[in-house]
Amino acid sequence: MDKLMDKMQEAAMYITSRIGSDPVHIGMVLGSGLGGLADELQDAVAISYKDIPYFPVSTVFGHKGKLVVGTLEGKRVMCMQGRFHYYEGYGMDQVVFPIQVMHALGINNLLVTNAAGGVNTSYKPGDLMLIVDHIKLIADSPMRGPNYDSLGERFFDMTNAYDKKLSALAREEAKRLGITLQEGVYMFFAGPSYETPAEIRAARILGSDAVGMSTVPEALAASHMRMKVLGISCITNMAAGILDQPLNHTEVMETGDRVKEAFTLLVRNVTKQWPV
Ligand SMILES: O=P(O)(O)O[C@@H]1C[C@H](O)[C@@H](CO)O1
Ligand SMILES: Nc1nc2[nH]cnc2c(=O)[nH]1
């Protein structure tokens, strides 16, 4: 066994010692302001990241740094209440390590969520957006370096990175529940600064509808391991230069808090129907 596989196994064994060996159906990464969903799990077991071998720790306000495992709408789910970002100083390999540990635990379904800035001017803060594709032009790939053939192929396909059936499910459920669900392309920026207005104009020309500092590394790692991914952004603010106002993390958190009911309702109903 190589080193990454050893680390994944050790982390997975520790988590299993805390949650038991019943299968976990869906992994969920909860973005800034969206972590409250984890508090709704039944029979929940919460594990601090600092207790899990080789896990990094969250340093961002609004990211609690806990793995919470429990039942949501009849499915056993594992929520990351707080994620790791490249701008925190972690390598891309550390950013995606939890996703690889989920895979080691037998999880093949992943919901990735985030707070994002709206680039598409038809969006408004508080909208939810189904991620149909992404753009990443900067920073390393998390898969840079030796390939772990037991995890996935060296050159892997990203055509269907965001699963079409799960996307259709989210679309249907949003419609049924009367929740506005925009659809768009999420573009990764390394942060921690928000973008300049010129970068946002460039992002729009390139075809992005929303910008953020996460999610894409996790979607890459999940695709490498052929996990099924559903992505939902919460448009917490209009991206830089669209409105005549500066951006700040407080607004991001406040908007996340404002939409938490709609977000939770949508995720609950998608989870209920999620084929596992
Ligand atoms: O973890 P996410 O992508 O939801 O967090 C976003 C990006 C930054 O961490 C932060 C900026 O306000 O929100
Ligand atoms: N990069 C980036 N990340 C965000 N997260 C929440 N809002 C934003 C934004 O406008 N830009």
UniProtKB/TrEMBL annotation:
Which GO CC terms are listed, alphabetically? cytoplasm
Q: Which CDD domains match?
A: PNP-EcPNPII_like (cd09009)
Q: Which Gene3D superfamilies match?
A: Nucleoside phosphorylase domain
Q: In which pathway does it act?
A: Purine metabolism; purine nucleoside salvage
Q: Which GO terms describe its molecular function?
A: purine-nucleoside phosphorylase activity
Q: Does the keyword Transferase apply?
A: yes
- Transferase among keywords: yes
List the InterPro entries. Nucleoside_phosphorylase_d, Nucleoside_phosphorylase_sf, Pur_Nuc_Pase_Ino/Guo-sp, Purine_phosphorylase
Instruction: For this UniProt record, give its keywords in alphabetical order, as a comma-separated list.
Output: Glycosyltransferase, Transferase
Q: Name one GO biological process term.
A: nucleoside metabolic process
The name of this protein is purine-nucleoside phosphorylase
Q: What is the lineage of its organism?
A: unclassified sequences, metagenomes, ecological metagenomes
